[in-house]
Amino acid sequence: MKDKLPPPYTALKRHPMMPEASHDEAARFNFLTLFNRYLSGDIGRGNRIAYEKRVLPAFREIHRRDPEDREEIRVAMNQDPFHRTWSALKRNSMEMRQQNGRQIVLRQLDALDARARAFNEASGLLELNPGIEQPVYAACVDIHCQPGGYHGGEHPDDVTVGANYDVGLFATTGGALGSLNDGGGQAVVAWVKANRPDWYPERILDVGCTVGHNAVPFAQHFPNAEVIAIDTAAASLRYGAARAAGLGVKNIRFIQASGEDLSRFPDGHFDWVQTTMFLHELSADSMPRILAECQRVLKPGGLLLHVEQPQYGPDMPLYEQFIRDWDAYNNNEPFWSAMHGIDLKAVMEEAGFPIDHQFVTGVRAVPDKSLFRGSPDGEEEDYGRAAIWNAYGAWKPQVTSQAAAKEISA
Amino acid sequence: MTQEIDWIARSGARAKGGRPAFFDEMAVDRLYSLALSLTAELAVTRERLDTVERLLEAQGSLSRGAIENFKPGASAGEERGIAMRAYIARVMRGFQQEVEAMEDPDPPVTDWVERLSRG
To answer: Disulfide-capable partner of A387 in A167, A365, A392, A404 (CB 3.0 to 4.6 Å)?
Structure first.
Protein backbone atom coordinates (compact mmCIF):
# COMPACT_ATOMS: atom_id res chain seq x y z
CA MET A 1 0.00 0.00 0.00
CA LYS A 2 2.54 2.53 1.17
CA ASP A 3 4.89 2.02 -1.77
CA LYS A 4 2.24 3.54 -4.01
CA LEU A 5 2.22 6.80 -2.08
CA PRO A 6 4.13 9.92 -2.90
CA PRO A 7 4.64 12.21 0.09
CA PRO A 8 2.02 14.86 0.78
CA TYR A 9 2.67 18.19 -0.90
CA THR A 10 3.34 19.86 2.44
CA ALA A 11 6.25 17.48 3.14
CA LEU A 12 8.28 18.61 0.14
CA LYS A 13 11.52 20.45 0.76
CA ARG A 14 11.13 24.14 0.19
CA HIS A 15 13.37 26.90 -1.04
CA PRO A 16 12.87 30.62 -0.48
CA MET A 17 11.36 31.29 -3.92
CA MET A 18 8.77 28.51 -3.68
CA PRO A 19 5.29 30.08 -3.44
CA GLU A 20 3.28 29.31 -0.30
CA ALA A 21 0.30 27.06 -0.94
CA SER A 22 -2.79 27.36 1.24
CA HIS A 23 -4.18 24.23 2.91
CA ASP A 24 -6.66 23.62 0.09
CA GLU A 25 -4.21 24.43 -2.71
CA ALA A 26 -1.83 21.80 -1.29
CA ALA A 27 -4.74 19.34 -1.01
CA ARG A 28 -5.64 20.01 -4.66
CA PHE A 29 -2.11 19.02 -5.65
CA ASN A 30 -2.33 15.94 -3.43
CA PHE A 31 -5.46 14.91 -5.33
CA LEU A 32 -3.94 15.60 -8.76
CA THR A 33 -0.70 13.79 -7.90
CA LEU A 34 -2.57 10.64 -6.91
CA PHE A 35 -5.09 11.02 -9.71
CA ASN A 36 -2.27 11.17 -12.28
CA ARG A 37 -0.80 8.05 -10.74
CA TYR A 38 -4.22 6.40 -10.94
CA LEU A 39 -4.60 7.28 -14.63
CA SER A 40 -1.21 5.89 -15.57
CA GLY A 41 -0.89 3.12 -13.01
CA ASP A 42 -4.33 1.74 -12.16
CA ILE A 43 -6.23 2.11 -15.41
CA GLY A 44 -3.56 3.10 -17.95
CA ARG A 45 -3.37 -0.48 -19.21
CA GLY A 46 -6.97 -0.06 -20.41
CA ASN A 47 -5.61 1.78 -23.46
CA ARG A 48 -3.57 -1.22 -24.54
CA ILE A 49 -6.43 -3.63 -23.85
CA ALA A 50 -8.86 -1.45 -25.82
CA TYR A 51 -6.37 -1.46 -28.68
CA GLU A 52 -5.79 -5.20 -28.68
CA LYS A 53 -9.37 -6.29 -28.06
CA ARG A 54 -11.37 -3.70 -29.99
CA VAL A 55 -9.46 -1.19 -32.04
CA LEU A 56 -6.97 -3.48 -33.79
CA PRO A 57 -9.55 -6.16 -34.73
CA ALA A 58 -11.85 -3.45 -36.11
CA PHE A 59 -8.95 -1.90 -38.04
CA ARG A 60 -8.08 -5.27 -39.57
CA GLU A 61 -11.70 -5.81 -40.46
CA ILE A 62 -11.85 -2.55 -42.41
CA HIS A 63 -8.38 -2.39 -43.95
CA ARG A 64 -7.51 -6.12 -44.25
CA ARG A 65 -4.08 -5.33 -42.78
CA ASP A 66 -2.36 -4.12 -39.64
CA PRO A 67 -1.67 -0.43 -38.98
CA GLU A 68 1.48 0.74 -40.70
CA ASP A 69 2.40 3.60 -38.40
CA ARG A 70 1.51 5.23 -35.07
CA GLU A 71 -0.63 7.83 -36.83
CA GLU A 72 -3.05 5.17 -38.08
CA ILE A 73 -3.30 3.84 -34.52
CA ARG A 74 -3.89 7.34 -33.15
CA VAL A 75 -6.75 8.02 -35.55
CA ALA A 76 -8.35 4.67 -34.73
CA MET A 77 -7.82 4.95 -30.96
CA ASN A 78 -9.33 8.43 -30.92
CA GLN A 79 -12.65 6.76 -31.77
CA ASP A 80 -12.44 4.30 -28.87
CA PRO A 81 -14.68 5.18 -25.91
CA PHE A 82 -12.16 4.14 -23.25
CA HIS A 83 -9.25 6.01 -24.79
CA ARG A 84 -11.42 9.07 -25.24
CA THR A 85 -12.46 9.17 -21.60
CA TRP A 86 -8.93 8.44 -20.38
CA SER A 87 -7.54 11.22 -22.57
CA ALA A 88 -10.21 13.69 -21.47
CA LEU A 89 -9.40 12.99 -17.82
CA LYS A 90 -5.66 13.30 -18.38
CA ARG A 91 -5.99 16.59 -20.24
CA ASN A 92 -8.32 18.00 -17.60
CA SER A 93 -5.94 16.94 -14.86
CA MET A 94 -3.19 18.95 -16.57
CA GLU A 95 -5.44 21.99 -16.96
CA MET A 96 -6.47 21.78 -13.30
CA ARG A 97 -2.83 21.57 -12.25
CA GLN A 98 -2.17 24.76 -14.22
CA GLN A 99 -5.13 26.58 -12.71
CA ASN A 100 -4.22 25.58 -9.16
CA GLY A 101 -0.57 26.52 -9.69
CA ARG A 102 -1.52 29.87 -11.15
CA GLN A 103 -3.91 30.55 -8.29
CA ILE A 104 -1.11 29.97 -5.79
CA VAL A 105 1.32 32.15 -7.73
CA LEU A 106 -0.97 35.00 -8.75
CA ARG A 107 -2.32 35.51 -5.21
CA GLN A 108 1.19 36.37 -4.09
CA LEU A 109 2.75 37.55 -7.34
CA ASP A 110 3.88 40.95 -6.10
CA ALA A 111 5.71 39.35 -3.18
CA LEU A 112 7.30 36.73 -5.43
CA ASP A 113 8.38 39.36 -7.96
CA ALA A 114 9.91 41.50 -5.23
CA ARG A 115 11.72 38.50 -3.71
CA ALA A 116 13.07 37.46 -7.11
CA ARG A 117 14.27 40.99 -7.83
CA ALA A 118 16.03 41.18 -4.49
CA PHE A 119 17.76 37.82 -4.98
CA ASN A 120 18.75 38.62 -8.56
CA GLU A 121 20.07 42.10 -7.80
CA ALA A 122 22.16 40.76 -4.93
CA SER A 123 23.42 37.55 -6.51
CA GLY A 124 24.54 38.56 -9.98
CA LEU A 125 23.42 35.14 -11.27
CA LEU A 126 21.08 36.56 -13.93
CA GLU A 127 21.91 38.04 -17.30
CA LEU A 128 18.95 38.95 -19.51
CA ASN A 129 19.24 40.00 -23.13
CA PRO A 130 16.07 41.74 -24.34
CA GLY A 131 17.22 41.32 -27.95
CA ILE A 132 16.63 37.55 -27.79
CA GLU A 133 13.44 36.69 -29.66
CA GLN A 134 11.21 33.80 -28.71
CA PRO A 135 11.58 31.12 -31.38
CA VAL A 136 8.39 30.00 -33.07
CA TYR A 137 8.64 26.54 -31.50
CA ALA A 138 8.60 28.09 -28.03
CA ALA A 139 5.73 30.45 -28.71
CA CYS A 140 3.37 28.85 -31.25
CA VAL A 141 1.46 27.04 -28.50
CA ASP A 142 1.75 27.16 -24.71
CA ILE A 143 3.93 24.10 -24.07
CA HIS A 144 2.55 21.68 -21.45
CA CYS A 145 -0.71 23.67 -21.49
CA GLN A 146 0.98 26.23 -19.24
CA PRO A 147 -0.69 29.59 -19.92
CA GLY A 148 1.99 31.97 -21.14
CA GLY A 149 4.26 29.05 -21.95
CA TYR A 150 7.68 29.48 -20.39
CA HIS A 151 8.22 33.00 -21.71
CA GLY A 152 4.97 34.89 -21.01
CA GLY A 153 3.58 36.44 -17.89
CA GLU A 154 0.96 38.65 -16.35
CA HIS A 155 3.05 41.81 -16.63
CA PRO A 156 6.58 42.64 -17.77
CA ASP A 157 9.41 41.31 -15.62
CA ASP A 158 7.24 38.96 -13.54
CA VAL A 159 7.97 35.37 -12.46
CA THR A 160 4.52 33.87 -13.04
CA VAL A 161 5.42 31.08 -15.44
CA GLY A 162 8.62 30.00 -13.70
CA ALA A 163 6.92 29.92 -10.32
CA ASN A 164 3.89 28.09 -11.70
CA TYR A 165 6.10 25.47 -13.34
CA ASP A 166 8.04 24.89 -10.12
CA VAL A 167 5.03 24.85 -7.82
CA GLY A 168 3.13 22.18 -9.75
CA LEU A 169 5.68 19.88 -11.35
CA PHE A 170 5.30 17.54 -8.38
CA ALA A 171 1.65 16.94 -9.29
CA THR A 172 2.27 16.73 -13.05
CA THR A 173 4.81 13.96 -12.64
CA GLY A 174 2.93 12.10 -9.93
CA GLY A 175 5.68 13.04 -7.51
CA ALA A 176 8.40 11.30 -9.50
CA LEU A 177 11.02 14.04 -9.55
CA GLY A 178 11.63 14.46 -5.86
CA SER A 179 11.23 17.36 -3.48
CA LEU A 180 12.95 20.04 -5.53
CA ASN A 181 11.82 18.70 -8.92
CA ASP A 182 15.50 18.04 -9.57
CA GLY A 183 15.38 14.26 -10.04
CA GLY A 184 16.48 14.64 -13.66
CA GLY A 185 19.58 16.65 -12.84
CA GLN A 186 20.38 14.35 -9.93
CA ALA A 187 20.05 11.34 -12.26
CA VAL A 188 22.54 12.84 -14.69
CA VAL A 189 25.01 13.62 -11.90
CA ALA A 190 24.68 10.05 -10.60
CA TRP A 191 25.36 8.72 -14.10
CA VAL A 192 28.42 10.94 -14.60
CA LYS A 193 29.85 10.06 -11.18
CA ALA A 194 29.35 6.34 -11.85
CA ASN A 195 30.78 6.42 -15.35
CA ARG A 196 33.54 8.99 -14.98
CA PRO A 197 34.34 9.03 -11.27
CA ASP A 198 37.53 11.07 -11.68
CA TRP A 199 36.11 13.65 -14.06
CA TYR A 200 35.84 17.20 -12.78
CA PRO A 201 34.37 19.37 -15.52
CA GLU A 202 35.36 23.02 -15.20
CA ARG A 203 32.68 24.54 -17.40
CA ILE A 204 29.19 23.11 -17.90
CA LEU A 205 26.51 24.44 -20.24
CA ASP A 206 22.84 23.56 -19.74
CA VAL A 207 20.76 24.42 -22.82
CA GLY A 208 17.03 25.02 -22.39
CA CYS A 209 17.25 25.19 -18.63
CA THR A 210 13.80 26.74 -17.83
CA VAL A 211 13.96 27.29 -14.05
CA GLY A 212 17.32 25.53 -13.65
CA HIS A 213 15.90 22.63 -11.67
CA ASN A 214 18.18 20.24 -13.56
CA ALA A 215 21.20 22.54 -13.81
CA VAL A 216 21.37 23.41 -10.09
CA PRO A 217 22.38 19.83 -9.13
CA PHE A 218 25.37 20.10 -11.52
CA ALA A 219 26.51 23.21 -9.68
CA GLN A 220 25.92 21.57 -6.30
CA HIS A 221 27.78 18.35 -7.11
CA PHE A 222 30.63 20.07 -8.97
CA PRO A 223 31.23 23.08 -6.72
CA ASN A 224 34.44 24.02 -8.53
CA ALA A 225 32.73 24.08 -11.92
CA GLU A 226 31.19 27.11 -13.54
CA VAL A 227 27.69 26.25 -14.72
CA ILE A 228 26.02 28.34 -17.43
CA ALA A 229 22.27 27.75 -17.83
CA ILE A 230 20.68 29.27 -20.91
CA ASP A 231 17.14 29.67 -22.15
CA THR A 232 15.37 32.04 -24.50
CA ALA A 233 12.65 32.68 -21.88
CA ALA A 234 13.48 35.56 -19.55
CA ALA A 235 10.39 34.83 -17.45
CA SER A 236 11.73 31.38 -16.51
CA LEU A 237 15.30 32.62 -16.00
CA ARG A 238 14.22 35.39 -13.63
CA TYR A 239 12.62 32.82 -11.39
CA GLY A 240 15.34 30.21 -11.90
CA ALA A 241 18.21 32.52 -10.98
CA ALA A 242 16.38 33.66 -7.84
CA ARG A 243 15.55 30.05 -6.98
CA ALA A 244 19.23 29.06 -7.31
CA ALA A 245 20.33 32.02 -5.20
CA GLY A 246 17.75 31.06 -2.57
CA LEU A 247 19.23 27.56 -2.51
CA GLY A 248 22.63 29.12 -1.83
CA VAL A 249 24.14 28.13 -5.17
CA LYS A 250 26.81 30.55 -6.38
CA ASN A 251 28.64 28.78 -9.21
CA ILE A 252 25.83 29.04 -11.76
CA ARG A 253 24.72 31.83 -14.08
CA PHE A 254 21.43 32.10 -15.92
CA ILE A 255 21.86 33.75 -19.29
CA GLN A 256 19.13 34.57 -21.80
CA ALA A 257 20.40 33.08 -25.04
CA SER A 258 19.29 30.73 -27.77
CA GLY A 259 20.98 27.39 -28.26
CA GLU A 260 20.85 28.14 -31.99
CA ASP A 261 23.42 30.92 -31.57
CA LEU A 262 26.10 30.33 -28.97
CA SER A 263 28.47 32.80 -30.64
CA ARG A 264 29.05 34.50 -27.28
CA PHE A 265 31.09 31.41 -26.35
CA PRO A 266 34.34 30.50 -28.09
CA ASP A 267 35.00 27.10 -29.68
CA GLY A 268 35.84 24.35 -27.22
CA HIS A 269 34.76 26.40 -24.20
CA PHE A 270 32.79 23.79 -22.26
CA ASP A 271 33.72 20.39 -20.83
CA TRP A 272 30.11 19.30 -20.78
CA VAL A 273 26.98 20.41 -22.62
CA GLN A 274 23.66 19.11 -21.29
CA THR A 275 20.02 19.18 -22.38
CA THR A 276 17.28 17.61 -20.27
CA MET A 277 13.87 16.89 -21.78
CA PHE A 278 14.54 19.74 -24.19
CA LEU A 279 15.07 18.40 -27.72
CA HIS A 280 11.41 17.48 -28.12
CA GLU A 281 10.38 21.11 -27.56
CA LEU A 282 12.27 22.32 -30.66
CA SER A 283 11.59 22.03 -34.38
CA ALA A 284 13.02 20.08 -37.30
CA ASP A 285 15.07 23.02 -38.55
CA SER A 286 16.32 24.32 -35.20
CA MET A 287 17.50 21.04 -33.70
CA PRO A 288 20.43 20.47 -36.10
CA ARG A 289 21.54 24.09 -35.59
CA ILE A 290 21.48 23.68 -31.82
CA LEU A 291 23.36 20.38 -31.96
CA ALA A 292 26.00 21.90 -34.23
CA GLU A 293 26.46 24.80 -31.81
CA CYS A 294 26.69 22.38 -28.89
CA GLN A 295 29.40 20.51 -30.80
CA ARG A 296 31.32 23.70 -31.55
CA VAL A 297 31.44 25.00 -27.98
CA LEU A 298 32.41 21.61 -26.61
CA LYS A 299 36.05 20.87 -25.79
CA PRO A 300 37.65 17.93 -27.54
CA GLY A 301 37.05 15.01 -25.19
CA GLY A 302 34.03 16.81 -23.73
CA LEU A 303 30.61 15.31 -23.06
CA LEU A 304 27.32 16.10 -24.77
CA LEU A 305 24.35 14.50 -23.04
CA HIS A 306 20.66 14.70 -23.93
CA VAL A 307 18.16 13.29 -21.46
CA GLU A 308 14.98 12.33 -23.29
CA GLN A 309 12.19 9.82 -23.34
CA PRO A 310 13.22 6.86 -25.53
CA GLN A 311 13.41 7.34 -29.28
CA TYR A 312 10.87 5.27 -31.21
CA GLY A 313 12.96 3.54 -33.83
CA PRO A 314 12.05 0.47 -35.86
CA ASP A 315 12.25 -1.85 -32.84
CA MET A 316 9.58 -0.09 -30.80
CA PRO A 317 6.08 -1.56 -31.29
CA LEU A 318 3.70 0.85 -33.04
CA TYR A 319 1.27 0.78 -30.13
CA GLU A 320 3.99 1.90 -27.73
CA GLN A 321 4.97 4.69 -30.13
CA PHE A 322 1.33 5.78 -30.20
CA ILE A 323 0.88 5.88 -26.43
CA ARG A 324 4.23 7.67 -25.98
CA ASP A 325 2.99 10.21 -28.51
CA TRP A 326 0.01 11.23 -26.40
CA ASP A 327 1.67 14.40 -25.11
CA ALA A 328 2.46 15.61 -28.62
CA TYR A 329 -1.22 16.01 -29.44
CA ASN A 330 -2.79 16.46 -26.04
CA ASN A 331 -0.21 18.31 -23.96
CA ASN A 332 0.91 20.95 -26.48
CA GLU A 333 4.25 19.44 -27.44
CA PRO A 334 4.03 19.63 -31.22
CA PHE A 335 7.59 18.52 -32.04
CA TRP A 336 7.42 15.51 -29.72
CA SER A 337 6.32 13.00 -32.33
CA ALA A 338 8.72 14.00 -35.09
CA MET A 339 11.66 14.35 -32.71
CA HIS A 340 11.18 10.90 -31.20
CA GLY A 341 10.71 9.43 -34.66
CA ILE A 342 14.01 10.58 -36.14
CA ASP A 343 17.31 8.73 -36.10
CA LEU A 344 18.95 10.83 -33.40
CA LYS A 345 22.28 9.10 -33.88
CA ALA A 346 22.33 10.21 -37.51
CA VAL A 347 21.40 13.78 -36.54
CA MET A 348 24.15 13.80 -33.91
CA GLU A 349 26.59 12.46 -36.49
CA GLU A 350 25.70 15.28 -38.88
CA ALA A 351 26.37 17.70 -36.03
CA GLY A 352 29.91 16.38 -35.80
CA PHE A 353 29.76 13.46 -33.36
CA PRO A 354 31.02 10.27 -35.02
CA ILE A 355 28.81 7.24 -34.44
CA ASP A 356 31.60 5.40 -32.64
CA HIS A 357 31.80 8.24 -30.12
CA GLN A 358 28.08 8.10 -29.36
CA PHE A 359 26.26 6.05 -26.75
CA VAL A 360 22.76 5.53 -25.38
CA THR A 361 22.19 4.75 -21.75
CA GLY A 362 19.33 4.68 -19.28
CA VAL A 363 18.95 7.10 -16.40
CA ARG A 364 16.18 7.26 -13.88
CA ALA A 365 15.22 9.99 -11.49
CA VAL A 366 17.05 10.14 -8.21
CA PRO A 367 14.48 11.58 -5.81
CA ASP A 368 15.32 12.17 -2.16
CA LYS A 369 14.91 8.75 -0.64
CA SER A 370 13.69 9.97 2.71
CA LEU A 371 10.40 11.05 1.12
CA PHE A 372 10.13 9.08 -2.09
CA ARG A 373 10.00 5.39 -2.80
CA GLY A 374 10.90 5.32 -6.45
CA SER A 375 8.85 5.94 -9.48
CA PRO A 376 6.50 3.48 -11.16
CA ASP A 377 7.67 1.85 -14.37
CA GLY A 378 6.68 -0.93 -16.73
CA GLU A 379 2.96 -0.91 -17.49
CA GLU A 380 2.47 1.65 -14.75
CA GLU A 381 4.81 4.14 -16.36
CA ASP A 382 3.32 7.50 -17.23
CA TYR A 383 4.61 7.53 -20.79
CA GLY A 384 5.88 10.93 -21.73
CA ARG A 385 6.19 12.06 -18.13
CA ALA A 386 7.97 9.09 -16.59
CA ALA A 387 11.08 9.84 -14.61
CA ILE A 388 12.84 7.03 -16.44
CA TRP A 389 14.79 8.33 -19.38
CA ASN A 390 17.24 7.50 -22.06
CA ALA A 391 20.37 9.56 -22.28
CA TYR A 392 21.71 10.08 -25.77
CA GLY A 393 25.30 11.08 -25.42
CA ALA A 394 28.57 11.58 -27.20
CA TRP A 395 32.15 12.28 -26.25
CA LYS A 396 33.61 14.80 -28.64
CA PRO A 397 36.62 13.28 -30.40
CA GLN A 398 39.94 14.40 -28.93
CA VAL A 399 41.04 15.46 -32.39
CA THR A 400 38.37 16.82 -34.68
CA SER A 401 38.33 15.62 -38.27
CA GLN A 402 38.96 19.19 -39.50
CA ALA A 403 42.04 19.47 -37.31
CA ALA A 404 43.22 16.10 -38.55
CA ALA A 405 42.66 17.20 -42.13
CA LYS A 406 44.62 20.39 -41.50
CA GLU A 407 47.49 18.40 -40.03
CA ILE A 408 47.54 16.14 -43.06
CA SER A 409 47.49 19.02 -45.51
CA ALA A 410 50.14 20.96 -43.59
CA MET B 1 5.65 48.25 -8.65
CA THR B 2 2.48 46.61 -7.39
CA GLN B 3 0.03 45.75 -10.13
CA GLU B 4 -3.40 44.55 -9.13
CA ILE B 5 -4.21 41.23 -10.74
CA ASP B 6 -7.64 39.62 -10.75
CA TRP B 7 -6.09 36.35 -9.68
CA ILE B 8 -9.39 34.51 -9.80
CA ALA B 9 -9.94 35.37 -13.45
CA ARG B 10 -6.30 34.97 -14.46
CA SER B 11 -5.79 31.63 -12.69
CA GLY B 12 -8.04 29.98 -15.24
CA ALA B 13 -6.27 31.48 -18.25
CA ARG B 14 -6.49 29.28 -21.32
CA ALA B 15 -3.32 27.81 -22.76
CA LYS B 16 -2.57 28.95 -26.30
CA GLY B 17 -3.12 26.09 -28.74
CA GLY B 18 -6.28 24.43 -29.99
CA ARG B 19 -7.77 22.12 -27.41
CA PRO B 20 -8.40 18.58 -28.66
CA ALA B 21 -12.05 17.54 -28.76
CA PHE B 22 -12.22 14.16 -27.06
CA PHE B 23 -15.88 13.51 -27.77
CA ASP B 24 -18.20 14.05 -30.73
CA GLU B 25 -20.39 16.28 -28.61
CA MET B 26 -18.70 19.32 -27.05
CA ALA B 27 -21.08 19.15 -24.10
CA VAL B 28 -19.56 15.82 -23.07
CA ASP B 29 -16.11 17.42 -22.98
CA ARG B 30 -17.53 20.16 -20.77
CA LEU B 31 -19.16 17.62 -18.48
CA TYR B 32 -15.86 15.79 -18.03
CA SER B 33 -14.19 19.07 -17.03
CA LEU B 34 -17.00 19.76 -14.59
CA ALA B 35 -17.09 16.27 -13.08
CA LEU B 36 -13.33 16.09 -12.54
CA SER B 37 -13.20 19.57 -11.00
CA LEU B 38 -16.01 18.66 -8.61
CA THR B 39 -14.25 15.40 -7.79
CA ALA B 40 -11.12 17.35 -6.93
CA GLU B 41 -12.98 19.90 -4.82
CA LEU B 42 -14.63 17.17 -2.77
CA ALA B 43 -11.23 15.55 -2.28
CA VAL B 44 -9.96 18.89 -0.99
CA THR B 45 -12.94 19.23 1.36
CA ARG B 46 -12.36 15.75 2.75
CA GLU B 47 -8.69 16.51 3.35
CA ARG B 48 -9.64 19.75 5.10
CA LEU B 49 -12.11 17.89 7.27
CA ASP B 50 -9.39 15.41 8.19
CA THR B 51 -7.20 18.36 9.18
CA VAL B 52 -9.96 19.80 11.34
CA GLU B 53 -10.49 16.44 13.05
CA ARG B 54 -6.80 15.98 13.74
CA LEU B 55 -6.42 19.48 15.15
CA LEU B 56 -9.47 19.10 17.38
CA GLU B 57 -8.30 15.69 18.55
CA ALA B 58 -4.84 16.99 19.34
CA GLN B 59 -5.66 20.30 20.97
CA GLY B 60 -9.43 20.50 21.43
CA SER B 61 -9.66 23.87 19.72
CA LEU B 62 -9.41 25.25 16.25
CA SER B 63 -8.13 28.31 14.48
CA ARG B 64 -8.10 28.95 10.78
CA GLY B 65 -4.42 29.75 10.98
CA ALA B 66 -3.79 26.30 12.41
CA ILE B 67 -5.68 24.73 9.51
CA GLU B 68 -3.66 26.69 6.95
CA ASN B 69 -0.37 25.78 8.59
CA PHE B 70 -1.15 22.12 9.26
CA LYS B 71 1.48 19.77 7.90
CA PRO B 72 0.77 16.09 8.56
CA GLY B 73 3.66 14.04 9.88
CA ALA B 74 4.81 10.88 8.10
CA SER B 75 2.13 8.55 9.48
CA ALA B 76 -0.75 11.05 9.18
CA GLY B 77 0.46 11.83 5.65
CA GLU B 78 0.33 8.14 4.79
CA GLU B 79 -3.14 7.74 6.28
CA ARG B 80 -4.39 10.70 4.27
CA GLY B 81 -2.69 9.40 1.12
CA ILE B 82 -4.33 6.00 1.52
CA ALA B 83 -7.69 7.67 2.15
CA MET B 84 -7.25 9.75 -1.02
CA ARG B 85 -6.38 6.64 -3.04
CA ALA B 86 -9.47 4.86 -1.72
CA TYR B 87 -11.59 7.91 -2.56
CA ILE B 88 -10.24 8.01 -6.13
CA ALA B 89 -10.87 4.26 -6.48
CA ARG B 90 -14.51 4.76 -5.44
CA VAL B 91 -15.05 7.65 -7.83
CA MET B 92 -13.35 5.82 -10.69
CA ARG B 93 -15.04 2.45 -10.16
CA GLY B 94 -16.82 2.53 -13.52
CA PHE B 95 -13.57 3.02 -15.45
CA GLN B 96 -11.72 0.37 -13.43
CA GLN B 97 -14.50 -2.14 -14.07
CA GLU B 98 -14.57 -1.25 -17.75
CA VAL B 99 -10.86 -2.14 -17.96
CA GLU B 100 -11.48 -5.44 -16.15
CA ALA B 101 -14.43 -6.23 -18.42
CA MET B 102 -12.26 -5.60 -21.50
CA GLU B 103 -9.56 -7.82 -20.01
CA ASP B 104 -11.89 -10.67 -19.21
CA PRO B 105 -15.17 -10.20 -21.06
CA ASP B 106 -18.42 -11.94 -20.10
CA PRO B 107 -21.27 -12.74 -22.48
CA PRO B 108 -24.38 -10.61 -21.99
CA VAL B 109 -26.66 -11.78 -19.19
CA THR B 110 -29.43 -12.16 -21.79
CA ASP B 111 -27.53 -15.23 -23.10
CA TRP B 112 -27.84 -16.87 -19.67
CA VAL B 113 -31.46 -15.79 -19.35
CA GLU B 114 -32.21 -17.65 -22.56
CA ARG B 115 -30.12 -20.70 -21.71
CA LEU B 116 -31.44 -21.15 -18.19
CA SER B 117 -35.00 -20.66 -19.42
CA ARG B 118 -34.81 -23.44 -21.97
CA GLY B 119 -35.06 -26.16 -19.33
So the answer is: A365
pLDDT of residue A400: 54
Residue in chain A nearest B24 by alpha carbon: A79
Given CB atoms, is A10 within the 8 Å cutoff of chain B? yes
Query: For residues A100 and A366, what is the distance between their CA atoms, to the nearest angstrom?
Result: 26
What tens digit of pLDDT does each residue of A131-167 get?
999 999 999 999 999 999 999 999 999 999 999 999 9
Strand (E) or helix (H) holding B82: helix B74-91
Residue A288 amino acid letter: P
Q: What residues form DSSP beta bridges with A308?
A: A390
Q: What is the rounded CA–CA span in Å between residue A287 and residue A278?
A: 10
B4-58 pLDDT, tens per residue?
A: 899 999 999 999 999 999 999 999 999 999 999 999 999 999 999 999 999 999 9
Q: What is the reported pTM?
A: 0.94
Pick from B84, B96, B104 the residue to mutate for testing the A interface (most A CBs within 10 Å).
B84
Q: Which is it for the CA torsion B44, B46, B49, B51, positive or negative? A: negative
CA Rg value for chain A = 21
A354 touches chain B (CB under 8 A): no
Contact yes or no for B12 and A102 at CB 8 A: yes
* CA of A346 vs chain B CAs: smallest distance (Å): 31
Q: In angstroms, what is the C-alpha Rg of chain B?
A: 23
Inter-axis angle of helices A81-107 and B26-59, to 10 degrees?
Answer: 50
Find which of A9, A22, A31 to mutate to test the B interface (most B CBs within 10 Å of its CB).
Answer: A31
| H or E, element range at A303 | strand A298-308
Instruction: Compute how many other C-beta atoms are within 10 angstroms of the C-beta atom of residue A65.
Output: 9
